[in-house]
Amino acid sequence: MSSEPENIQTENLIDLLDKLVLPSEPLPISLVPETGGWYFLALFLGLIILGLIRFLVKRHRANAYRRDAIAALPFAADDAGMLARVIRKAALATFPREDVAGLYGDDWAAFLERTCEGQPFKGDLAKQITRAPYDLTIPVSDELISAARHWILKHQRGPIS
After folding, report:
1. Rounded distance, CA 90 to CA 112, Å?
2. What is the pTM of this model?
């Protein structure tokens, strides 16, 4: 007997490669989520983004009076009375009118100190800003303008006790 089986076909490698069938193209992967949880997550994230946009728009609108006051400071650089009016207008824009309109003198200076961190109007500056609407001879110093800018940018918003 021979050691070789009789049924074996002897084909060369190239013929075998030609008989291979290529696999079919896979279906494209869908980008649409298959479960409902992803839709809820997308809705939740959308609501968070809308809430953030709403918050930023409200904050931007609420600080419009600050931007107006800062823009008016260069026009008040030569007139202390005008500088005092800019500060009072900013205070009236954010605090209740009945809490601000009647303040003058030491009460006005105390209000400015109480409503701002760092208390920019101390000592002589407090006297200057309280007398400015009534005394046209008060000089406008860089310190006074800097204190006004600081108060406009840093004062607390809304009614305080």
Report:
1. 11
2. 0.71
Cα–Cα distance, 26 to 53 (Å, whole number): 42
How many Å apart are CA 123 and CA 130, to the nearest integer?
11
Report pLDDT digits (tens) over 36-71. 899 999 999 999 999 999 999 999 999 999 999 999
- How many other β-carbons are positioned within 10 Å of the β-carbon of residue 81? 16
| Paired tokens of 17 | 């490669």
Residue 33 CA to residue 42 CA, distance in Å, equals 11
Amino acid at 161: S
Any idea where the domains of the chain sit in the sequence?
A: 64-154
Cβ atoms 113, 119 nearer than 8 A: yes
What pLDDT does 37 receive? 92
Give the CA distances from residue 64 to residues 40, 67, 152, in Å, rounded to whole numbers and listed in that order: 36, 5, 11
Q: What DSSP designation does 73 have?
A: G
CA 15 to the chain's CA centroid: 71
